[in-house]
Amino acid sequence: MIEAIGLTKRYGSTVAVNDLSFTVRPGRVTGFLGPNGAGKSTTMRMVLGLDRPTAGRVLIDGTPYNKIKNPLRSVGALLDAKWVHPNRSARTHLLWMARSNGIPVRRVDEVLDEVGLTKVARKRAGGFSLGMSQRLGIASALLGDPKVLLFDEPVNGLDPEGILWIRRFMQGLAAQGRTVLVSSHLLSEMALTAEDLVVIGRGELIAQCSTAEFIDRSAKAAVLVRAPEWQRFATLLRDKGFAVAEGAEGVLTVEGATGAEIGEVAAGNGVVLHELSPQRASLEEAFMQLTGDSVEYQTGSAEKGV
Ligand SMILES: Nc1ncnc2c1ncn2[C@@H]1O[C@H](COP(=O)(O)OP(=O)(O)OP(=O)(O)O)[C@@H](O)[C@H]1O
């Protein structure tokens, strides 16, 4: 579990993180979202003891990072996959990490196997593709078999196959009971990967809840209806006090009613329905709605820094 309590970081006059409190639970993937400059990387660095908070604290399973005896055995992180020495092989790199952290050498081959790099383990890491580098970064994070894992933008620049692999891998880690916090700009990907979200803007907490709740909370619920007698049905629905918008080819968008309520109005009045489908907003729409005011650099209406 990760607990941030009143976490604050100032760089001179810039407040990167401001009185931020949140909890990341084990057994699920938690997405860490926020517009550019929201303070995600700064927060992750503070979790990992790489940056000192100006105020507040962050605990990993109840202990601050700098008080953990064997940090690699408690927390693993992927911050920058390209930090490996280019002339080292993947295996040499992991062996060096294992030896300098008192981790048994057998873990090196175990993690190489887990991330699917066994065949290229003796090749120069400098020649690795981005996807392979990400796998090596993940292998490094897993070396100490930690309960808590942090990944900063792990799917950036990956092809769809690489993205899918990372998604499944993270969900697998969470299913093993680990705490997995992952930041990403790819919101549609996060909607598929993360069960929970911590959303920040301008260094402050905007929301901490499940992904489903985040979408429901921000978006107006609407139900799409198709009926041959759409004009009569629209009148019936309006008489019930529901808001009805008439679209092209008689498609009705109904707000303020559940699918069940609409179905009952139809049945009660002998209206034939061809479609009745509740609409859900995308995570992008919910995110734009909730973080709209907290974007640091506004560049235009469509481009909101994500
Ligand atoms: N070392 C630093 N010195 C000064 N200001 C910094 C430093 N690191 C971060 N900042 C500032 O703190 C704020 C938060 O930055 P941070 O990199 O944590 O955001 P982020 O959410 O990770 O952004 P991105 O998604 O663009 O990576 C920004 O205004 C940034 O300019």
UniProtKB/TrEMBL annotation:
Organism for this UniProt entry: Actinosynnema mirum (strain ATCC 29888 / DSM 43827 / JCM 3225 / NBRC 14064 / NCIMB 13271 / NRRL B-12336 / IMRU 3971 / 101)
InterPro entries documented for this protein: AAA+_ATPase (IPR003593), ABC_transporter-like_ATP-bd (IPR003439), ABC_transporter-like_CS (IPR017871), P-loop_NTPase (IPR027417)
SUPFAM superfamilies xrefs: P-loop containing nucleoside triphosphate hydrolases
Protein name from the UniProt record: ABC transporter related
Stretch forming the signal peptide: none
UniProt similarity note: Belongs to the ABC transporter superfamily.
Keyword Transmembrane: no
Keyword ATP-binding: yes
GO molecular function per UniProt: ATP binding; ATP hydrolysis activity
Alphabetized UniProt keyword annotations: ATP-binding, Nucleotide-binding, Transport
Domain ABC transporter: 2-227
PANTHER family linked: ABC TRANSPORTER, ATP-BINDING PROTEIN
